[in-house]
TrEMBL record:
Residues 121-181 form the HNH nuclease domain. It comes from Lampropedia hyalina DSM 16112. CDD domains: HNHc (cd00085). The lineage of its organism: Bacteria, Pseudomonadati, Pseudomonadota, Betaproteobacteria, Burkholderiales. This is 5-methylcytosine-specific restriction enzyme A. It comes from the Bacteria. Pfam families: HNH (PF01844). GO terms for molecular function: endonuclease activity; nucleic acid binding; zinc ion binding.
């Protein structure tokens, strides 16, 4: 079967014989989901997992144009924030020594982000009701958007979507960037 058919089959609950949960290597599914690379390769080729290794699956999927991810190399923003805190805990002199030896060009990486698909009508209505004023501090929007000249405000969910909050007008307010940062980090 083709790789696309193997992905569909896996998403429909089919598993190859001797299926074991993947630890590190995943192929990106059609909706951004992470699917076990070795299982997908096994379904696509009909070869049981014991007769090939993960390197074969990764190479085969990559060669066929599929995005394959090693989750050991995913860095979350929390890890970066921790690294900044660790750097701040050292002396400026130590930081300057590290900076003198550091590459001036950052390494690029591919990241995957899980996002909520928000309702554009909620955002539009909340911005309309705010009428260009922050609904937290009451100040006028700090600037106008280049794209359309409308006041720049950000829509913030009172109870975050990640915490089970609803994407509704009642659960959202329009805030200036400072109040939005304060709501999340203050």
């Amino acid at each position: 079967m083709s790789i696309d058919e193997a992905i569909t089959s896996f998403l429909n609950g089919n598993r190859p014989s001797s299926f074991r949960k993947s630890q590190y290597w995943f192929v990106l599914g059609p909706n951004g989901e992470l699917l076990p690379a070795k299982a997908i390769w096994s379904l696509a080729t009909g070869i049981t997992g014991a007769k090939f290794n993960t390197t074969h699956a990764v190479s085969g999927l990559s060669d066929a144009g599929y995005s394959v991810v090693d989750i050991r190399h995913i860095q979350t923003s929390e890890k970066f924030d921790d690294a900044v805190e660790k750097s701040l805990a050292t002396s400026s002199q130590d930081r300057k020594k590290r900076l003198a030896n550091a590459s001036k060009n950052p390494v690029k990486k591919i990241t995957m982000v899980e996002q909520f698909v928000r309702n554009p009508d909620v955002v539009a209505e909340v911005l309309y009701q705010a009428n260009g004023k922050c609904q937290e501090c009451g100040a006028k929007a700090p600037f106008n958007r280049k794209s359309d000249g409308k006041p720049y405000l950000e829509v913030h969910h009172k109870k975050t979507l990640a915490s089970g909050g609803e994407d509704t007008v009642e659960n959202a307010i329009a805030v200036c960037p400072n109040c939005h940062r304060k709501a999340h980090y203050g």
